[in-house]
Amino acid sequence: MRLLRLVLSFAVLLSATKASIFAGYTVGRQFQYIGKFCFSWTSTLDDIAGRIAGEIETDVDGLQVAIYDDEALFWNFVMTDISCDCYCKVSAQHTKGVFNVTATNSHHVTPFTFNVDIREHLRPRFWYVALARCVPGGDQYKPSFTEITETNFRKYYFSSWFKIHMTQGDGSELPVQQQGLPAIYAVMAAVAGAAAAAQLVAVRRMRQSESFHPIMRILTLVVLFFFLCNALLFIHFTTYEFNGLGVPFFKYAARITDVFVRVGTLLLAMVIAKGWTINSVTLDGQIKLSCVILVILVLYLSMAMWYLVWLDPASTLYIYDSWPGLGICLLQVCVLGWFVNTILETRSYEKASTKRYFFLRVSTGSDTCYRTNPVLTPRFSDVLPVFGVFRSPAYYRARCFLLVAVGA
Question: Which residue ranges does UniProt annotate as crossing the membrane (predicted)?
Fold first, then answer.
């Protein structure tokens, strides 16, 4: 029970880095990232594209709130240029705005508040919020744990409660890359729900006639997991529209069920390709198939760990551009080749025209689109500018991946 509470608490903590509301307590030194949000754009600079509102409560002097956008001389520069120290990071040349935080004490008990209106007329941009307390020599101060005293801590470190709320100009809580997802997942949940209901009715009839096919068992599990995944994501993103946080537990549960859907789809496709129970009683190559599924599970787990633990929270890197993601793409291509070769070989042994047509449809059907999806979407950012859409993988890749998956 304690372990479950710990996992749920950890999931809630992680979710705060993927929301429009960033709230909590932090201890930092020199410079501390707080949160990011992708704001939309308007036709002119007279209109407001978004807003950043915040409350900061601290008992140390010299704390500052720094605002950046994703232009080359701002966030990207201060995070990649090794010569840019703390004072450089909060300079007017590399920030969109800096606020000096008034410390809370016996004479001033009201938290410091600030508001920023976002004006952008070119394209959607990520904006970033960070806390900074620049102390001379602070960038070079790297003591061991035993060398940290109360005096040194109060000199070089800062602690603060914070609450940052970022919204679009129309009040929407959704960043650009998530706009439209509630409607998409509503449709997907409805379609998946109808498919799940039809599948359960079919299962009931097959059980009554004692003809519940093994492949149908796998298909039933995949359909149910697919419905559960989309229903959870629909609830999460619909709630997100109202509270800026969504339902973190549902989000992470949906990601887990999505892995089962992907692996189950692979297993289903391969047992059909091998003709198991269709034109062959035994399943050949069970060890090889089990190894492939295990490798895919490990890669998905690695990608999840990279995304949740090692990836910089400020990063906008597309998940399939990570090494585990690229590994999954490469393995998917290999599995696709194996799948097509296996099903065509199985089809060549089949004499019945109905079964041959079935194998042909499966080999050229949605599985091909599903397997190549992660490989195609990293290249969409190169194609989109041709159609007059700005080059921005962070905004479009995830949504392109989802839309292609829906089409499949």
Answer: 183-203, 215-239, 259-277, 289-310, 322-344
